[in-house]
Specification:
Length: 222
């Protein structure tokens, strides 16, 4: 057993706007654990590739950029090559680009070790699509958060509006469906509820309730 595999990991996977980001961050805060927003790495890879003039369909090109991009996470912000890109990587366009590059196996490989490096004492909460299946298969406990498309689109629209971005509910539903379909049907690391992950449906429950549910399960682990 290597040293890092004794550090606890809580894996939280699920589709866009299932509430997993908010829930995972709160769980990490409550436990004093580190937090990995793995989706931001795919968002950053797409942005870094674009800035380097690499076509997003150029798999080796995007993978090479993803493997060496200079990124930093601190104080809730994200930097790419020294520039604060926190808002830029959250646009709808950045979301679609992230989903495109995330379907490329070489890009996923290039980001694998970078994600595992977040496993630091006293523990990690990882949020994404393949935290429990690929990145941390030996996670202490795994969850799959989901919600109806309508509930997720409503949350996503609200988030975009809060950031001052324009958002029309019907367009958001359409974009969510496109992204869900791509994330669930790609051959590598598809978004899927595996039987070893606890299922939490957040359609009718608050983030606070989901947090308590996760902490309750984690604290009962042997
Ligand atoms: O969680 P998010 O919406 O920020 O993720 C952006 C995209 O990245 C999403 O469409 C799927 C992809 N992704 C992935 O394939 N694997 C992960 N572990 C996290 C995100």
């Amino acid at each position: 057993m290597n040293q890092s595999s004794v550090i606890p990991v809580i894996a939280i996977d699920g589709p866009t706007a299932s509430g997993k980001g908010t829930v995972a961050q709160r769980v990490a805060e409550r436990l004093g654990f580190h937090y990995l927003d793995s989706g931001s790495l795919y968002r950053l890879a797409a942005l870094a590739a674009e800035r380097a003039g690499v076509d997003l369909a150029d798999e080796p090109g995007v993978a090479s950029v993803a493997g060496r991009m200079d990124i930093r996470f601190a104080e809730g912000k994200v930097w790419l090559a020294g520039e604060d890109v926190s808002d830029e990587i959250r646009s709808e366009r950045a979301s679609q680009n992230a989903s495109l590059v995330a379907a490329l196996p070489a890009v996923r490989d290039a980001l694998l070790q970078r994600q595992r490096d977040f496993r630091q004492a006293p523990g990690l909460v990882g949020d994404g699509r393949d935290m429990g299946s690929v990145v941390f298969p030996d996670a202490t406990v795994k969850f799959f958060l989901t919600a109806s498309v309508e509930a997720r689109a409503e949350r996503r629209t609200k988030q975009l509006k809060e950031k001052g971005m324009s958002a029309i509910m019907a367009d958001v539903v359409k974009e969510l469906r496109i992204r869900d379909d791509r994330d669930m049907n790609r051959p590598v690391a598809p978004l899927k509820h595996y039987p070893d992950a606890y299922l939490i449906d957040t359609t009718d429950i608050s983030a606070a309730t989901a947090v308590e549910e996760i902490l309750g399960v984690y604290q009962k682990m042997p």
